[in-house]
Amino acid sequence: MATATRNKLKVVPLADRVAIRPLEETETMKGGLYIPDTAKEKPIQGDVVAVGQGRLEKGERVPMELKVGDRVVYGKYSGTQVELDGEELILIKESDVIAKIS
Q: Considering only CA atoms, which of 21, 10, 25 is closest in space to residue 72?
């Protein structure tokens, strides 16, 4: 159930999906070279901003291992990118998250 408030959109992923805010890679330019956005690598780390309730298995809900605020590593080409309220998010299944960073 996604609800919209006056200026802020709230995302609630379904089942075993999570919403991740990708971390921006900091870039140091040596010698004044400019690297266009299309040539940059996609980020593979991000912060979890929302989690679903968990998947159903044999009629029972399996709880999520991830929680809001976790920093994770995910597959470079996994998930679906969406832009909500000018913010880029990736919606991805919990099983596609490779690791949690502590």
A: 21
